[in-house]
Amino acid sequence: MGRYSVIILTSTNKHKIDFFFKMNEKNLIKKIQTLKQIEPEKDWVVLTKRQIVGFEDVQMKPSFIDQVLEVFQVLPGFNYKLALATLAVILTLGGTIGFSQAALPGDLLYPVRKFVDKTGYLFVSKNDQPKLGLEIANKRLEELTMIAQNNQGRNLAPAINEFRQSMVEAADKLKIVDGSPKITEEIVKETGKLKENREKVEALGVVVGETKELNRALSQLVEREIKDLESRSLTEEQIGILTQAKQDFKDGSYEKALEGILILSYPQP
Amino acid sequence: MDDSQKKFSKIYDQYISRIYRFVFLRVNSRDMAQDLTSETFTRAWDKFKGNSGSEVKNWLGFLYQIARNLVTDFYREKGKVQIISASYAPTLTDPSIGLEEKAFLSSEADQIKAVLSKLGEEQQEVIIWRYLDGLSTKEISQILNKSEGTVRVIVHRALEALRKELSSFNQ
User: Fold this and answer.
1) Would you list the domain boundaries of chain A?
2) ipTM of the complex as predicted
3) Distance from the CA of B22 to the CA of which of A50, A86, A202, B132 falls in 20 to 30 A?
């Protein structure tokens, strides 16, 4: 009986022995893998390749595209050709967009630049759209100034048209202004900039013509703000500012009138 | 650089380290490993130039085939005497290795290298391919031109032999 108790393995003992052997094997494989540190000398690798294949460029660095694709190779269902085609489309689009940023009205890539500018509306809140509209109008004026400075007669007419169109759009966006101080302040700032840019381009002998749409939109905005202020009780000093704003409004100096309104409606601390 | 050079260059970059390591572990000499590895790739390049490598489906297997043939030729030429690096001589010639020598081979890599060199040619190869290079049984069976079942047995026995050698080395 004593002999049997030595030979027969219970289920538990068998597991223990299996585990012992598995652990040993695991450790053994781990030890074998320490041999991975055996590496050929880099100089020898380079020299040998040069001798065998016969060219200088030995370490073939993966191209930028290969490096990018390598990142996506971990994704399930990765298809090299499809990924390459997608990357090519992205890079072409990216390159086109990049180049288009230097395009001027009348250039081949200018519509792309305009499109990129307009997509900006998709990424800003409704309240910020008037500001963006005025910023785009300012951009168009800057382009016009550049064309005038470089004497690019061919691009002049398209640039004026682009500016006018941008003013119509900016005016349209101004209609949605809710009268918050931040937005009014930004409108004042951008309108001031617009005035400066316009003066610059007109100084170069370019007549951009009337911008009725924007004037109308600004006029409506100022009128609305003045009416609102008139319904409030104001100090004598404030009444003076409001009177001046009304006068500016009558004179068509809407930007000046807005500055006064801003002081009254949203006094600085 | 023409297209075939570019293609072969990629194969070279991909496999040079593995082939060198395989040869080095088989001959235990850096200089010989460099010579034989260089010869391996020279022969592969000749083959590649000949038919643009289109006939070769498994380059790693093909390179291992050349390398192992070269190693075999090398030992045959040397009168079947395996060249052993001087650092391992005591462990192989004198079983009652001294403490100093043991300390010399203290690192795991050195130990396993010394012990591996005691195994038979085929056992060394399968250990390297299976556990160092991560080749599947199928891939090894293609290189050795043996059935997968046979390869499994060889790998198992090689690992056992290595375990035994390692255990007697540490005693």
Assistant:
1) 71-99, 101-265
2) 0.79
3) A50
The string of DSSP letters for A21-78 reads HHHHHHHHHHHHGGGGG----HHHHHHHHHHHH--S--S-PPPHHHHHHHHHTTSTT-
pTM for the model stands at 0.45
**Chain B (52-111) residues lying within 8 Å, Cβ to Cβ, of chain A:** 107-109, 111
Whether residue B1 lies within 8 A of chain A, CB to CB, comes out as yes
Q: Does A207 touch chain B (CB under 8 A)?
A: no
Rounded to whole angstroms, the Cα distance separating B27 from B124 reads 11
Per-residue pLDDT of chain A (269 residues; tens, 9 = 90+): 444 444 454 555 555 555 455 557 778 888 888 888 888 988 899 888 888 887 544 444 555 666 666 666 666 666 666 777 777 777 777 777 776 677 778 777 888 888 888 888 888 887 788 888 888 888 888 888 888 877 777 778 888 888 888 888 888 887 776 666 677 777 877 887 887 888 877 787 777 777 777 778 888 888 888 888 888 788 888 888 889 888 988 888 887 888 888 777 765 54
With H, G, I as helix, E, B as strand and everything else as coil, classify residue B146: coil
For residue A190, count other CB atoms closer than 10 A to its CB: 21
| Residue B125: partners with Cβ closer than 8 Å, 6 or more residues away | B22, B26, B68, B144
Q: Which domains does chain B have, with CATH numbers?
A: 1-83 (1.10.1740), 92-171 (1.10.10.10)
SS3 A179: coil
The answer to whether the CB atoms of B42 and A52 lie below 8 A apart is yes
